[in-house]
Amino acid sequence: MPELDKAVEAEREGGFLLAKPEMRLLRWMAAKLPRWILPDDLTILGVLAAFGVCAAYQLSNEDLVWLWAASGLLVVQWIGDSLDGTLARVRKIERPTYGYYIDHVVDAVATAAIGIGLGLSPLMLLSVGTLIVVGYLILSINVYLESFAFGRFNIGYGFIGPTEVRIILIAINTIVALGWGLGFDVFDLRLTALDLFGLGIVTAMVLVLAVRVTRNLRELAQEEPAAPRRAPRGELGEEQPG
To answer: What is the C-alpha to C-alpha distance for residues 147 and 169, in angstroms, rounded to an integer?
Structure first.
């Protein structure tokens, strides 16, 4: 199917803040890896690390020292999630359709695990964490649809991508683990700075999705104009005057 090939082979656009230096670093790391490590090994590593992040966040209710573990596992998750595809491209062992499928399935699972873990931690309300997961998955679905419709794959919305989000989480983990309180009360509800940050992220997600969907629909409507509400007079079946 030409449309499927177009989606799978869509060019990845790195428009977020750290895209270029991250790509250089990943290529350097891929070149240094031993030959026996394969892309699938890194994919599995990323998934396991995501569940580890979820567990560490939950355990941080008992002891904030687990936030250091969560931060370390976020780095491991980044390595597994970001390096698998780069390793395949550097070694020229790509499996485009397989990679496209497994990458998106794993991304959804990892995002859900980390988001729910945040909601189970003392850093964020579960409702806020769930909203972030839902919002992120909706944005991801839009990216996949864009790759099918336009042949471009741009997972970054604005300057913030998955790597930048991980860095923000690690920074907040560090602040809280060092004992700097981030909690306060709003309308008898105990919130944290991460709750407000999360709600801000959800709001931004809604706005950028609306803008991007509007732009996409306008572009598609130009390629495939809608039918007129009323057919031209000659197409209505009336008898034309002689």
So the answer is: 28
In a domain, 229, yes or no: no
- CA distances to 12, 19, 64, 143, 146 from 25, rounded to whole Å, are 17, 10, 31, 24, 27
For 5-33, letters b (16+ CB in 10 Å) and e give eebbebeeeeebbbbeebeeebeeebeeb
Instruction: Tell me the whole-structure pTM to 2 decimals.
Output: 0.79
**Domain tally, the chain:** 1
pLDDT tens figures, 96-134: 889 888 988 998 999 999 999 998 988 888 888 899 889
> Angle, to 10 degrees, between the axis of helix 193-223 and the axis of helix 126-150?
20
Pairing of strands 11-12, 152-153: parallel
Residue count of the chain: 242
Do residues 137 and 108 touch, judged by C-beta distance below 8 A?
Answer: yes
d(CA 122, CA 58): 8
Q: Is residue 16 part of a domain?
A: yes
Burial (CB count <10 Å: 0-12, 13-18, 19+), residue 92: exposed
> ∠7-221-135 over CA atoms, to 5°?
55
pLDDT tens digits, one per residue of 138-151:
988 888 888 888 87
pLDDT digits (tens, 9 = 90+) for 20-32: 888 999 999 999 9
CATH number of the domain to which 207 belongs:
1.20.120.1760
Which amino acid, 195? D
Q: Which range of residues forms the domain containing residue 198? A: 2-224
Taking alpha carbons only, the member of 158, 164, 17, 155 closest to residue 78 is 164
